[in-house]
Amino acid sequence: MTEEDVFAAKVAQEYVDFIRVDPWYEFAFASRLQKLWAGTALSGPDMIRKWERKLILSIEYAAKAQYAMIIKLASKAAYGDADSEMLILAAGVTPDALKDQPKSKSLSNSRMGRYCCHCHVMRNSATA
């Protein structure tokens, strides 16, 4: 396994963690391309694999960076900026059920029939 393989695995995990919260096209593919070349040696063991990985990863990150930029521009033109908060009306949720959710905030607590309703604002973890 080359250091480029290790780098690619790290970037893949960063990407998975990122898209759980934010749109894929906001991921910094261009900076990962720069880090690939700045953070890995030009020579070392298994040179053919090393350079194959550098080439393929460079093409992949560059293509994704360009495509992401196009999608981001089109998305913002069509829909505007993504909301960083979400308003949720949930029936049957008690304050205790949310005690382990530090990014949620109860805005109101009222009785609606036999259901206890809470209005919550859930903040996007990347912006909160």
How many helices in DSSP terms? 3
- Please state the overall shape, judged from the principal axes of the Cα atoms: elongated
Largest sheet: 3 strands, antiparallel
Q: What is the helix content?
A: 40-55%
Task: Please give the radius of gyration in angstroms.
Answer: 22 Å
Tell me the number of strands. Answer: 3
Task: Let me know the average pLDDT.
Answer: 83
What is the N-to-C order of secondary-structure elements (H for helix, E for strand)? HHHEEE
What is this entry, summarized?
The chain is of the alpha+beta class and 128 residues long. It has three helices and three strands; from the N terminus they run H-H-H-E-E-E. It is elongated, with a radius of gyration of 22 Å.
Question: Would you write up a description of this structure?
Answer:
The chain has 3 helices and 3 strands, in the order αααβββ. It is of the alpha+beta class and 128 residues long. A 3-stranded antiparallel β-sheet has the order 1-3-2, with no helix packed on it. Helix 1 packs parallel to helix 3 and helix 2 packs antiparallel against helix 3.
Pick out its properties.
3 strands; 48% helix; 20% strand; 3-stranded antiparallel β-sheet; 3 helices; alpha+beta; elongated; 128 residues
